[in-house]
Structures
1.
Amino acid sequence: MNNRREFLTQSIAGAAALGLSSRCLFGEVTKDKPPTRFIFIHKGNGILPQSVVPPTFTREQREVEQRKDPFVADLDEHDLLEWMNPIAEHKKDLTILQGLSGKMCTTGHHTWCSSLGVFKANERLSSIKWATVDFELAKLFPSPFGHIEFACFPSGGGNSRGNINGIEKGFSARGPQQPNYAFGSPKVAMQELFKSVSAEQTAQTQYELERRMLEFVATGELNLAGHLQGSERVKVANYADALQEIRARNGRVEAMGDVLRKHLPQLDAKYFAENLSTVDRQKGLTEVLLSTLISGMTNVVTFTVDELGTLYSGLPGIEGENVNQHDVGHGKSVGRFEAIEVREKILHQHMMLVDTIVTRLKSVPERDGTMFDNTMLFYFPDNGETHHSNGSEWPFLVLAGSNSSLDISRRYIRLPAYGKEGHKTLGNWYTTILNAYGNPINHYGSPDVGLKIDQTGPIQSFIG
Amino acid sequence: MTTHAERTLLSNIRSAATTMCCVFVIASAGFAQGDAAFILPADVQSVITSRCVDCHGTDTAEADVRLDILGTLNLDARLELLNKVQDQLFFRTMPPADETQPTTEERTRVAKWVRDELRRHNASNLDKKLRYPDFGNYVDHEMLFSGEIKDKPFTPARRWLVSPQIFHERVSDVFGLTDRARQQTFYGVTNPFVLPDHSGVRDYDIATLDGGHLLVMLNNAQWISQKQVFGAVHSGKDRRKLEFSNAQDRWYPPTASPAFVAIVAKGFAPTEQELIDAIQAQFDCVLKRKASDAELTRYLTLLRSTIELGGNTEGLRQMLVSVLLESEFLYRQEFGDGEPDKYGRSKLASTEAAQAIAYALGDRGPDEKLQRAAAEGRLNKKEDFEREVRRLLADNAWFNGPVDPTLSGKNMQSHVATHPKLVRFFREFFGYTGALKVFKDEKRSDGYYQNPSRGTAGTPGFLVKEADRVVDRYLQSDKDVFRNLLTTDEFFVYHDKDNETGRKIIAEWTEAYEKLKDTDWKANPEKVIEENLEFIKSNPSVRILGGNQKREFLRYMYFWGETIGKGRTPFTTVSFAHGYTYNHSPFYNLPPTPHIFRYGAVEQKNFKGLDDVEFWDYPVDQPFRIANRKGLLSHPAWLIAHSGNFQTDPIRRGRWIREKLLAGRVPDVPITVDAQVPDDPHRTFRERVEMVTGKSECWKCHQHMNPLGLPFESFDDFGHFRIEESLEHPDNVIKTNQGNVADIYKTKPVAVTGHLDGTGDASLDGQVSDAFDLIDRLSRSTRVRQSIIRHAFRFFMGRNEMLSDSKTLIDADKAYVTNGGSFKAVVVSLLTSDSFMYRKVVREVN
């Protein structure tokens, strides 16, 4: 019998297998084939399921949609909602995926690593159960820097608390109890990621200072380890090795100097200011993100375009307002705009960023096509279906190039509703992606203890 | 850095006798190196031939193992095979129980030869395993307490990774913060350490730093050094006039090191002495010691170079970061110092001793008196250790603090204790904090259970805190501690105010209700408030004078009406208080208390009144007796911690008793076993467990667990006491409920008998009628008492006991008994033992 009880055992085994299988597959990308790039873009305050439904659905389709019965529609036959206009040109690459649930995640206002890790994350390191899905994919497609994360951090409370212009705990996790760190501003992202090729004297100096410091610490720890034996040696040697690995990573990026210089983000000075609008912050980080992908520094990026506590400024049409998303979540209007209209403005802004990314990647030749052919972009909420979410739905927009291993493009897909036979969770969805790209894990993510159907494995019909 | 002590000891190692279960190989000049010619002694060969080869020879080779070809194997293959043999002999899984057994002398002879052969090649896997918590009980209990072991106790010289709590305190120490200036959290510091979740002692000296720790520390070191430099740059300035790059991060240390100030204030290159002073200052802040000459030379080179390149301030900061990234900052160092005694042991250096004592009793480093004793050479002898340990145990202020700050959230604060670390031993030993990790289907609890979530530890958080209070109560009284913790029927539930405050609140509420109940309060509440305004103002426990007075007044009156008005005492916090989440009384089989929303509509026009619910008659004076509970093993926190998501876990409960209370062993589940409890709508969980574990191949292991765990079927997986089990299977549904109300299923009586063995006391071993009978017998067992002492040893020493620790354990046990069951006497005994005071450099198996 496949039920939730059985699933608990299987998912635990699956989690254990994850680390092993990932390691086994590490480095299996062939030199003849470009790597696949993955871009995870998530937002706060939920995405209302009804807000992604094409307006041109027939009455029958709308009824099926309202009943949340499973069905598939061809997007070629439909218009997109107005807020999706910026990506209308990419409709042939688009999937609107509805009906996933994520009740095994922390839901509600702030969810930290939950939506990427499919577990309940509550801001304590101990709540991080395993590497988030983006890190698992980064293991499958290694790159000089490895996974890179950007975030428009909240300033009005929320995850993660820190300097919104700094390098702070992000929303991804490197492994059990290991948070990742994200770049909060275009300036700090530029400084850190491109410091080895910076033309500025101060940045060059800072890079050299840190290089010397790391070399000094690593040398000291290596020397110490060399004098020790047995477990006492291991206690120091692991740490020394980790220092060496960071130096090696810096070395790999440094060796890409010529390529990096060619792809340096081209940003006006305003994007490097300490105080910049949220919209400018997003634009600036998007440019840095593109440079890291196009230069080959990384193959996997995660971008928190906002969190519930991110105060919005610079939104087109309401540039002068500081939009509090929590208020929007509670239906408060902003200026002359109703809350739902403000939501759409924010979504529209996000689609502008997505369009920038997709269009740019489509402009970069790669083998017989473009870089986008080997790219998957996921846009989704960090908490599910609404402001005070419970994880019953988790809408996704997916934009994938022609070499995608998933067969889902140009479609509106509604999966069976929560609790119904065939219903799928975030865990199934990520399992599908991992399986499709070479990680054979049985199931990724925590189980939903309230779900009484089989919830393991991939969504088989998605795998092309 | 290899310390002076390490070098001295390394060069002075003499041969030393190893004990059978010592997990280390003592360095000795007599050790053979490399792959010497293989010789199988005739007396060993004869045992192997007569006892093993029948099944593991040419013709049979069961499990693909052949012992007749040992001499023909290459070294790697031979060592691999010998490791297998060693495991089988040590864990007594071979020869099989139904075969003729070798004599004790034969078994010992073969085991000794196998062990020596493996150690000769530094290849004994068992030696490595025995350092891990799961293998603590493999040291023979009878031997440990027999008094026959005459070896001198010691602890191997070691690094011991700091605990999360110690790390946090060390950051406060880096900034030189004292008293109230010490911070609960630091804006830019992430604690890189997390202890394992399992029951039992978790903070062992076997943990190592890794890449994850480093990544976190790189960020921590940047932030800490920036604050140190900021404090130096702005030393003496008016902090109100300072500008901060991050408005949310305005904290910086109140004092700055003069050595740092001297460098950042200079417009030109610092002198060598200034550089030395700065390096020594950072060593003092971070590592609590002076830099050695060699270290000074290295750091001077770095500092000159970074200052030349980046200027005084940024150059200094790189040095500060470098010291913060020294692995020594993250390890406790215990190497011993001085000439080793004739057993190869050195006493802890006085500074190490001060830290060891302080970290044994709390998370903060040594207090001033302890530091002074170390500096003045008054921390060398056993009497010195005892004096300081007793002083700190009697000090109710130095360590006073929350038992577990991570439990604290918006609705609940952790229990505060004078010695949180002593409470922490018992919470780790019992493992009831595991309740925080078991997620439940809330509907199955009628919605009373709340899983931990962001900002709240939920229902298990409350339950864990209440278990902490039980532990602390008996630590404070310090009489018959173990027995009381195992058998008490008095518990704390809710109890967010002390007894006196609670009584006062109830008296004032009762007075108010009696005065107002016969007024026209339902129809005309405003008028009643106005007429009784002075009275209400004079009653501090009635808070209706802010905000919506009418609504608050009505809520109070309805709340009192269905509690005081029905002769019951209400809980002393009103359920309509903001953020109220006390809903867990049903998990003790106590009646519920009103939910936060119960009185939400009392002022609305269409309010129809309240349905009749029998709420809990709250005992203001706590602890109080609860029926059908006996000790921490019947506490909901422990029961939930040792349960699954949907059902009880008699196997884990039984295993806990076998391992934690009876010092017994249960082999790990063989990897070929995919243990699943079968579904069967007509059977209880016990019956289904017995169906699958009763098979002879399963029973070999399950006999050690099931009979001890099954009596706890008296409690369901939420901790409710029960006599009937709800058969939660779709075929058994009687009624499906909507929302957060549990579905109703057919039930069946639970069987709760069991069997106790392994106490070594014939008057205690035998059939048990239920969990209470079992608990009662366990509480009277010498073996149980000694087993708890063994775990206390592991907690305070950070390692498993070896046979050579025998005297330490016997002394601790004696101290407990002769002092009327005082746990503090155990602590004093352990912290003044040779195991605690002496270190010995050992050469380990790689």
2.
Amino acid sequence: MNTKTIRLSAIALSVAALAACSGPQVRYGDAKAVETVNANYGSTDLQMIAEAMTRSLLQSKAISGSKDAPIVTLADVKNKTSEYIDTRVITDKIRTQLMKSGQVRFAVSVSEMQNQTEELKRQNQSGLYKNSTIAKTGNMQGAQYRIEGSIASIVKNTKDVKDVYYVFNLNLINNESGLLEWADEKEIRKTATR
Amino acid sequence: MKKILLACTGMSLVLLAGCASKPPAPVESAYIGQVPADPPKNPVISAEALKADSKSIAVTDIYFKKEGKNLTFVEETRTTTDNNISSTIVPKTIEVDADKANASAITGGANSSAFPVKFTDLSDPKATSPGTASPPVPVVDAATPSNSSSSTNAESMKRSGYQSNYEYGELRYLANPIRGLLIKSGYKVVQAKSTPAVPNQGDEYFDIVKRIKASDFGDADYVLYGVLAEVSSTDNVSDVPGTKSTSQQMTLEVTVDFNIVDTKTTQIIASFVASGEGKDVQIDGRDTGYKPSNAKLMKLASLDLAEDVRKHLADQNFITNNPGSAGQLRNLKTRLNDDASTLKVYK
């Protein structure tokens, strides 16, 4: 074994060791890019649903015909599919887009009430705050409407094909009258073949 | 010739331009130097009536009539020894509120355990006539020692009933915010003479016309008087949905029947029922044993009552909306300056 061979071996070993330390490769992708990894519920479905529902809701008479931006709250979106879907992400995304439009104001939803009551309790009942600056108990604004809905799916499998049909349903309900002021649905069909 | 032709052409053009122009637009409403007043809506509160001086009004304290019931127990112990009968009568009287008495065993109400006797109205001859009231139950005193040589027998009889009484008076804490809003509305508020209730007072206590004739309200043009219809306090606890907390809500609610009477004609100018609510909300208050401040509740209730009175007075055109606002003061000043003979027409 000559000196040249030894040197080359040493360099190769060093490169191999460095490569082992560097870990997996990470790269940023486009968050809006269409995701087709499999037929399960994914980010593209979330974006399609949120966009379609927001557009439709903003065109509804209850929202567009209102003189002042109506106060709305988020209620439950039921997951009736066999998959685990965090429906809160869907409604949060819809809420964000509606808020950006400036045509709707949102009151805290039931799931956010714990923090709200704790804050009110801290300000009103601790005795630590200047009276004129306290956010007083009893002045929360009630929502005129609530948004609720459901997502359901039909899944069919063969040896080579998986067909998934999602239907997302959203309703805007007048809290005082109980009337359904607006409703719309978004259908998504995904087929995966081997 | 050329000059004449040019002059004729010029004239024609001017005439054509005149015909083509739109008709003159109506003169826009313009207020110069003075803002128009709201037209006086209530026939009584006219510009003429207010021209020299604002009208004066007396506001009474809130009258109330409280029903009380005297519960009377009569315990009679009759002791029979051979041929002698001696009797000891021990009367007891407890004064309770009417609602407590009504909720007692008479109706099988919630206070049945607190007042576990059947009460009868002692002033009602039907209730106390024989055969209608429950017969007294003789109770043999078991503690009495029996003697074989001389027979001694003690019987205890208990009777009970109630007598209604009524208390009349004035609540002195609720009317001041109402006086304040009337002052802000431009009225002169006159102090009313208080009316102490006399012994065996009846409903003539509320006879406002009698009091007007007795000059209890000085030279006031109007008298606003209210009679307390109901006062209730509640203390409820409810869950706050979506949290682990509860909300303790303590409320004091007063409902008052109001009338405004013209002292000259005794005509009722406005009449309504107003209510006010004082509320204290405490999150998890029951857990911490929170006690509400009655003074705070009373203040909130009186302010809320005044606000409701303001709405009703505005609805019935006795005052303008938003008393105390700059616009209202301006209107009032204008109304005071206006004279029916010098009415201004604003275009």
3.
Amino acid sequence: MRTIHKKTLVAGLKTACLGMVLAVASVSASDQIPAGPQKKPIVLVGGTIHTMAGATIENGMILFDKGKIVSVGEKIEIPADAQRVDISGKHVYPGMIESASILGLTEINSTSATRDFSELGEINPNVKAAVAINPDSEHFPVTRANGVAMAVSMPRGGVIAGQAALLQLDGWTWEDMTLKSPVGMVVNWPRMTVITAWWMTQSPEEQRKRSKKNVEKLHQAMEKARAYKIAREAAGKKGVPFHKYDSRWEAMLPVLRGEVPVWVVADEVKQILAAIEWAERENLKMVLVGGADAWRVTDLLKERDIPVIVTPVLRTPSRRDEAFDAPFTLPQKLHEAGVRFAISGGSSFGNERNLPYHAAKAASYGLPVDEALKAITLYPAQIAGVADRVGTLEPGKDATLFVSDGNPLEVMTHVSLLYLQGRKVDLNNKHKTLYHKYKTKYEQLAQ
Amino acid sequence: MKKSILSFSALFLCCILAWTTLSAQIKPVSGLHENTPNVVALTNARIVVAPGRVIEKGTIVIRDSRIEAVGSAVVIPADAVVRDYSGKTIYPGFIDLYSDYGIQTPKSASSRPGRSSGGFSPFGSQSMARDAQKVGTAHWSSATHPERRASEMFKPDAKKASSLRKLGFTALVTVPKGGIFRGSGSLVLLGEGQTNKLIVAEDVVQGLSFSRGRGSRGQGTDAYPRSLMGVIALMRQSFLDADWYARAWRAYNAAPAGQEAPIRNIGLEALQPFLRGKKPLVIEAGDELAALRAAQLAQEFSLDMWVRGSGTEYRRAQALKNSGLKLIVSLNFPKAPDVSTRERELDITLRDLRHWDMAPENPAMLARAGVSFALTASGLKKGDNFLKNLRTAVARGLAPDKALAALTQIPAQWLGLSRLIGSIEAGKYANLIITDGDVFKKETTIYDSWVAGQRYEVTAQPAKDLRGVYALSVQTGAQTDTGRVRLTGKASALKATLELNGVHIKAKKVVLEGLRLGIVFPGDSLGRTGQVRMSGLEADGTISGTGLWADGTEFSWSAVFARKVQDKPEKKKDKKITRTALKPVYPDGAYGRKTQPEQPQVVVVKNATIWTSGPQGILENADMVVRRGKIQAVGKNLKTPANAVVIDATGKHLTPGLIDAHSHIALAAVNEGSHSVVSEVRTQDVINSDDISIYRQLAGGLTMANLLHGSANPIGGQNSVIKLRWGALPAEMLFDGAMPGIKFALGENVKRSRMQGNTRYPNTRMGVEQIFEDHFQAAKDYRAEWENYRKARKKNKHLVPPRRNLRLETLLEILDGKRQIHCHSYRQDEILALIRVADRMGFKVDVFTHILEGYKVAEAMKKHGAMASCFSDWWAYKFEVYDAIPYNGALMYEQGLVVSYNSDSAELARRMNTEAAKAVKYGGVPPEEAFKFVTLNPAKQLRIEDRVGSLEKGKDADFVIWNGSPLSSLSRAEQTWIDGRKYFDIEQDREMQQANARERAELVQKVLSSAAPSGKGPAGRGMRRRGADETKAVIRHSNFDREQTGHGSMCEVEGDLETR
């Protein structure tokens, strides 16, 4: 956008022309039009290709067709009908993945009419984020403009919050946008530490009670779901009467079968230990989300192969005595210990576009830059179970990638192109539209 | 001469005594007259007359309620009953200066909170919540009732009095409960009988409180104050009001004709005796910073202020000493924190652990620092622990004389009643405690308490000390068994061992009633079954009586005194007292410092890339010389003076310290969210210098923060600008060069959009505009009122003066350009509306803060002369920011506005450097200019750019050394300096972490091996948590709670912080 702006100035366009530019901009921008399917092969030429799988290729080429990457290399075979895009001096990265957001489930956070991420009750395994995604949310164009191409959107309410979905941030419908659903069953582990701050209305005793009650609810839900599973599996067997459908326990079946992992949201070590113990006892696949204290239990996490979605990195330490940089060094500690992890910034609604800066903070406090990049591309893809499709730039994978003028971890880097499964996505958004609208105002005033 | 005065006063006292006796006769006698004489001589006792003055063996003569004579050679009056206190020590009775003993709080106060009406009344006050109609001439605030008097609310409580006497107290000051101005306290005796006789002195002190008390939140106008800030502001205004009240009535009474009478107010009237230090006030302080807040008020209004502390005063002993406060120290020692598991230990801060270790030495440390203090039993969870804790305090280093003075002499002095209480001297109340030894030692028992000449038994004493070895003979039928019985233990709690036929038997139970002794012992050791009971009467050294074997057979027995028992020293069960090895650090806890960092004479930073944010721009390979905290030179190849501290910054970047123009860290309260206009409240009153955010933000290169009031009101409270001098006191953090400022706010927060059924005006942006218009008009009227008064007063001396109004005076400061506005604002309509009001009224909105639609009306802001301080890229957290764009900063910058990026968040403030980079990203602001968004520009906005904000000669040496470009998200701050002192160093931080960990490990060991078992309950959890640090930590923690908040902006907290 900056280049466009410069050009406009250089051209010295007067009111009429500007009006035209604006008109065009507002038509295409206030409601960005989802890109259609890739029609012919595209090859990006001359850029540095950060594959996130093996070596980085300088002055390379990447060819994709029908939405899939065909080949990547210094010199590759290019079909005659391929569209050549010169990206000399620029960089190509796999589309970044935000692993823990509420994107699409709310528009304006304080306006309850737009909030669709928190269902009533404590046990909601049957609710699915995917079906409530608003494809016309202004947040999608805003977020993807920074190269964040995909995001996990999570239900948040209650103890078992519901099913999270991995979205591509462009599409006509939520079905178009859903890359995978469910990626996980979100479980909010009840808080186990008593809060005595001024704003806490519950007494320590009430808090302990509530916490205990909620853990108990979770255990009961599991017990009931198991009873349901046994009954369902026995259906049709001799002497087994008909059992009615229960939407909640039906939704738990894939979890109990180990097909869908539980995404346990927990920060404190007490919660984490309790959750690990629970997942072990229930024989569930677990992903830890949040994980502020995860560095205290790396052995356990490694041993059980429980990946951690560190979210956010940009936060204050959770206890007064913790090192000022405890949240910043957490990813490096996990990396060092060999615990699988991804980085997310999604807990700060409206700021999902800043995902790479969470990774950057970890890098500035010790995490190798390469790892920081993987923590927002490859690793989240692995944790979400879609690494066969996205997360790296390798033949056969989705052509979901972006082109930038530098390292995306740097704030000052600009993204100039974004492809989602080979579809060239509009990088305009509400913010750029308003920017141009009001630039025009001042240009008018200057006359 | 001297003698004659003495005898005169003695005579005078006699008269008083006579009168006192007579006064009892006001009450008619309906039956027989009660005329028992009360003349007692306490003899043969060791008398501690006063701290340091002991009569080894003396007599006290008591006549009625008073001491008639004390001395070693006192002639016992012929009419006296003699009580032999051989072997006993007599101390003056303890006095507690802070209690609510016997206070009967009225069920319905003089005023009741009104109920909100909700309806719209075009003629009523514009506060839609209806104010309650007051009864009588009460103060408008239901929390202000200084007219309440303990003497009218006091009823003795025999049970409570008895338990207090057990602790050594004989008199105390009892103060009405609840409210901010609570009422006046009385000195009462802890005796029994007629209430009228138990009150020694009325209205000796006025009770104040920083908290209006639980459940006393008012409605409408009375909703104010809700926060600590508001409470202090109310106190300040009330002291001024009280002063005005007296003058106004004097003037009016001198010439009542033709002028309006000042409004009547019983509260302001009741405050009169306590103004200007005439009589003391007493306030509870929840921590040492609260105590210093009280000191500030005391100084401001020349008050005689007593502060009831919390037990944490050692943390700032020197500052408290300097404040000259009179401290009433609570012996509140925390239970051992629960560190039984690693996970539980995590909930305990080093500050808590250190407090556990140091708290028992709080009195000793205060004494060492020379703080004048009294001791109190108040503030303890279990009041009964007072004596135990007192003894611990003495064992942990408090000199016994100091302890005694703090409980007797000092309270008496502070009350101005030394002539009546506080020592054992003729003429004074016969308030005494009788012990069997040093009252400050654990093993000592208090036997009697004398209150106003009346004896109250504290510990029952046996009629006779029967301890000794006796020759025993037991006669069962014809059989005689002989042996011995040994009576040991305490005289009041005997233990017995029998020896019969060579068999030693330990008694199961020994009962002593008067001179009758009963013993139960197991018979099996004598070859008999069951338990054996024997009882007998002592007479002249022989105890004789009968007993029953288990089978019911009787026997007779006698025991003849043979000799005294050798006092075997009881096995020392006492744990060895270990004094703490700790010394307070500043602030106490992890990352605290022993002292402020030193300021080297000269510091030279060499070979750095210097972002000056000044005319020199960005210099490669350059040096900076700092002398005594000021920048002396910035440039290439500067000479390094001898003795300079040299920092080789090759490959590093040097920048000015970052400045946050919108912060809410380090505050004990943020919003006074009650009234629409609260311009009189001051964040300066509630700075919390111990907030860990200060240190954490230093680590991100921040050196200054503008501490703003929240956005709950169109006209909020006053701001304060601090330097992040971690470890300093609140007052020392304030930046001396800062321009006074105030918070304004527009839009959703002030119209309480997220509140159901708002009843506070305004409810729309239309109303918001009118609040400004109306209040600035009021301010102008106020000025006119004063001007008219000053003119007219020349002719008429008895004109009733106008009342000072701090709320409106603050607005006048704005009109006079002496106070700048930081206006929370989002939408273009409201921005423009305020600019127009300001233009009409003749004031300027210096800084629009947040200002996320500033890009829509930048030209109007520019024309008005306003500056803009915004978020870089936040949006969509509420409707009024749905049009917020990250290009906002760049667009306003292009229109020539001075733009800064601020944090409004304890988290974001740790990385303001990369916020600046967003101005480069979104809109292409040149990097050097973008970096000014967090250095020079906020300095300009706070009107302090002559002192800070850039690296230029003569400016304060506030700087940061980065390991790379400050705009790179891959860089980090390595050192942060303020005033040429290094406040943060990433290497030192690592060392501190290790030292903290070691100290923690040692303290945990100490806790685990301490006597108090901590595994049982969540003892540590019960400890009070203070400071915004924990609070915010948990907010962070709850990111994933079901009510996702979006971002941690404190300003977006519309509600108010509870007074802590």
